[in-house]
Amino acid sequence: MKRNKSYMAKPSDIAPQWHLVDATGQTLGRLATRISRALQGKDKPTYTPHMLTGDYVIVVNAGKVRVTGRKPTQKVYYKHSGYVGNLKTYLMKDMLETNPERVIQLAVKGMLPKTSRGREMLGRLRVYKGESHPHEAQQPVEGKLVVT
Questions:
Q1: 40: exposed, middle or buried (C-beta count within 10 Å: 0-12, 13-18, 19+)?
Q2: DSSP class of residue 90?
Q3: Is 141 helix (H, G, I), strand (E, B) or coil?
Q4: Cα separation of 29 and 75, whole Å?
Q5: How far apart are CA 78 and CA 52, in angstroms?
Q6: What is the mean pLDDT of each run of 10 residues along the chain (148 residues)?
Q7: Taking Cα atoms as reference points, which of 30, 36, 24, 105 lies closest to residue 63?
Q8: Could you give the maximum distance between any two Cα atoms of the chain, in Å?
Q9: What's the rounded Cα separation, in Å, for the pair 20 and 34?
Q10: What is the pLDDT of residue 148?
Q11: What is the pLDDT of residue 144?
Q12: In this structure, are residues 106 and 65 in contact, taking their beta carbons and an 8 Å threshold?
């Protein structure tokens, strides 16, 4: 009896690409979903759960991301230093004005595995507030992760 074997990627099979995503006018959650899938490598046929098969993602125009509903006034981000009574809260509208890169990064982080592999994947994400980025040498592919 012949059995089918599952494909497991080898380190020599993995060749990560760089993707450039323009966040202008895109909904935050849908954008974060596409980015997290690319970071995990789940959009590739060579996806292997125990290997880092994902790509690098550069997000530009993070300040122009779209948020629907009442989230800007109701969604709260928390930060705690570990000391008693030192819980800080930030509204999404304040975070979008001061640090929009962090909003996208936290949305993607919540969709990645909570393991050391997930932290490696998050390290492959680069988010920039404006149009310019310092990764021209990597020759990123534009438009693959566009959400409509």
A1: buried
A2: E
A3: strand
A4: 13
A5: 29
A6: 82 92 95 96 91 95 96 96 96 96 98 96 96 91 63
A7: 24
A8: 65
A9: 12
A10: 42
A11: 62
A12: no
Query: Phi/psi of residue 125, each to 5°?
Result: -100, 130
Query: What pLDDT shows up at residue 18?
Result: 95
pLDDT of residue 4: 81
Q: What is the CA radius of gyration of the chain?
A: 18
Please tell me the pTM assigned to this model.
Answer: 0.90
DSSP 27: B
The pLDDT of residue 57: 96
Neighbours of 14 (CB within 10 A): 16
CATH class of 18-67+99-133: alpha beta
**What does the angle CA 122 – CA 61 – CA 59 come to, to the nearest 5 degrees?**
25
